[in-house]
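As agreed, record copied across for absentees:
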Amino acid sequence: MILLGMFGPSEVIVLLFLVILVFLFPLIMLINVLQSEFEGNDKIMWVLLIIFLPFIGALLYYLMGRDRRIK
């Protein structure tokens, strides 16, 4: 708790927001991949990418992969 004593309330809020974002965003994208339909092995590729490179994989899926889903 001494570490938190060096930060003010605004820094703690920003830090908590970033921690939640880093953990929550990949989880939401992983759930989105698992609920969607893809052609071939695309679903497996996106799941592995999000699991092994959580934030980068989720960001790549958000920017590129969602357009590749089967409607």
